[in-house]
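Sequence only, no structure available. Ideas?
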Amino acid sequence: MRRAFRFIRTGTVGTAFGVALCLAPSVEAQDLLQRVKQRGEIHVGVELQSAPLEFTEQGQPKGYSVELMALVAADLGLKIRYTDVPFPSLLPGLDAKTFDMSGSSVTITKPRLERYHYSLPVVEGTVGLIKHKRETGIRESKDIAGKVVGAQRASSMLALLKNYSATLPGGVKEIKEYVDYNQAYADLAIGRIVAVANPLPNILYAARLRPTEFEVILPPFGPKAYLGWMVRKDDDSKPLMDEINRSLAKLNGSGKMRELQKKWMGTEMDLPADRIPEPLY
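Reply:
I predicted one. Tokens follow.
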């Protein structure tokens, strides 16, 4: 499928886009949906460092969410202009109207729902475990009791893993903390730990990349969670998100979202197409 998008990188949040809007009062009188329709282009901020959802390959945006966004944009008759920003700049950039929406797949949480209009879930973000295939005694999440496991330092995944360990008889032997998941997967490969906790899209992708070594333990142990896209929580932005959700519901119902999930994560996900479920945290 040919994708219509332009791609720029930035390490800081710019203001030129907002200034341009201020200089055009007649256009500003319209809502955001009308303005992007008039431009024929939607400006999407995204952190392209989260395979398999959003990342770059040979300098171009790739991934499940990127392909899904292309389908939504085509349905709305729009081209896409991506701006790659560090995650700490993503929501401030959205707040500052540097771009029209966030296209990163971000966990839907109670505090974020209070501040932003979310899309319908685009992928499940429930935290689960990935193990090495040599660990034949680990068939369910509870089988990590008494063993050494790992998660990223200072992450929600680490907190969830600690809470889950407390429910197991005797708990786990040790939870090793890692700066990043490349280190955790390296230790998993050589047997220093038996499992790693991470959201489902990431561990499913890791298992697909290393099918002879890694295997995802299903069902996941964490509370159900979903990821979605965001716009500002105001009357100006809501019509745009309503149209995006209309398109997502159609893609969900047609099975196209499941096709993309199978392509990028090796499995299909049952996502609600008519509502945003109440977050559990």
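The chain has two domains: 5-124+225-265, 127-217.
Hope that gets you unstuck.
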